[in-house]
């Protein structure tokens, strides 16, 4: 609970007036909580935080853009690291939840389901450094960490395979990523079509892929093809 001599100063940030009013009414029902401001966007949140120094902020995640609340939270935590931020959202999105906790927020609530007691409990818990990671949130965080680990393992394995490609195979891989057909690659590199086909089959075999399209899609999604191009920039003779 809050110190009897100190009210918990709370800032509400939401671009929808209906939710600002809803949070205002919930917070105003508790005599130990002082609502110090209502902000409509991330910029206002940062300015009001600098001026008013709230103990707790209830921050909408989506305002100017899809993650503006998270971006504002990052700036606020850098500026005033002791400020506790509760991210609020109308949707239950695993990726946003993960990004929010990565930022260092104290809690995450689904505002359309949150009752007055839920809001007050979240504020008190954040203020007292007792915000729980609820079981359903913990499970989602675990899954996101697993996805990150799988992605990292995939990238490392891909980089290992790349290191085993010959310079010619790397050049052909770049041409494939730029949409060159096998015939065009043969003409560009002044080699026989059968030689080009052999090189491409060798590349696919090393990556254990069935088609060039599948391989290029994977390398593009992991941003590896762009890194290859940057590394080879000025060195590829076409």
Automatic annotation (TrEMBL):
GO molecular function annotations of the record: DNA binding
Cross-referenced InterPro entries: CheY-like_superfamily (IPR011006), NreC/VraR/RcsB-like_REC (IPR058245), Sig_transdc_resp-reg_C-effctor (IPR016032), Sig_transdc_resp-reg_receiver (IPR001789), Tscrpt_reg_LuxR_C (IPR000792), WalR-like (IPR039420)
Family annotation (Pfam families): GerE, Response_reg
Keyword Ion transport: no
Entry keyword S-adenosyl-L-methionine: no
Any one Gene Ontology BP term: regulation of DNA-templated transcription
Keyword field: DNA-binding, Phosphoprotein, Transcription, Transcription regulation
Record-listed 4-aspartylphosphate modification sites: 60
SMART domains documented for this protein: HTH_LUXR (SM00421), REC (SM00448)
Domain named Response regulatory: residues: 9-126
Biological role stated in the UniProt entry: May play the central regulatory role in sporulation. It may be an element of the effector pathway responsible for the activation of sporulation genes in response to nutritional stress. Spo0A may act in concert with spo0H (a sigma factor) to control the expression of some genes that are critical to the sporulation process.
PANTHER family, alphabetized: TRANSCRIPTIONAL REGULATORY PROTEIN YDFI, TWO-COMPONENT RESPONSE REGULATOR
Name of the protein in its database record: Stage 0 sporulation protein A homolog
Organism: Anaerosolibacter carboniphilus
């Amino acid at each position: 609970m809050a110190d009897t001599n100190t009210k918990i100063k709370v800032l509400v940030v939401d671009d929808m007036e209906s939710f600002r009013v809803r949070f205002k009414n919930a917070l105003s029902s508790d005599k130990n909580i002082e609502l110090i401001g209502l902000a409509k966007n991330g910029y206002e949140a940062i300015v009001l935080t600098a001026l008013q120094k709230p103990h707790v902020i209830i921050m909408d995640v989506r305002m100017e853009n899809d993650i503006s609340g998270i971006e504002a939270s990052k700036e606020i935590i850098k500026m005033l690291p002791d400020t506790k931020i509760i991210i609020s959202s109308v949707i239950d999105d695993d990726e946003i939840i993960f990004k929010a906790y990565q930022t260092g927020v104290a809690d995450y609530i689904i505002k359309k389901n949150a009752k007055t007691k839920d809001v007050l409990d979240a504020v008190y818990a954040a203020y007292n450094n007792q915000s729980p990671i609820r079981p359903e949130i913990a499970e989602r965080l675990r899954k996101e960490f697993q996805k990150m680990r799988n992605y990292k393992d995939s990238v490392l394995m891909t980089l290992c395979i790349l290191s085993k490609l010959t310079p010619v195979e790397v050049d052909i891989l770049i041409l494939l990523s730029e949409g060159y057909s096998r015939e065009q690659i043969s003409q560009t590199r002044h080699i026989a079509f059968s030689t080009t086909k052999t090189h491409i089959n060798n590349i696919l075999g090393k990556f254990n892929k069935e088609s060039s399209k599948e391989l290029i899609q994977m390398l593009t999604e992991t941003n590896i093809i762009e890194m290859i191009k940057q590394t080879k920039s000025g060195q590829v003779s076409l």
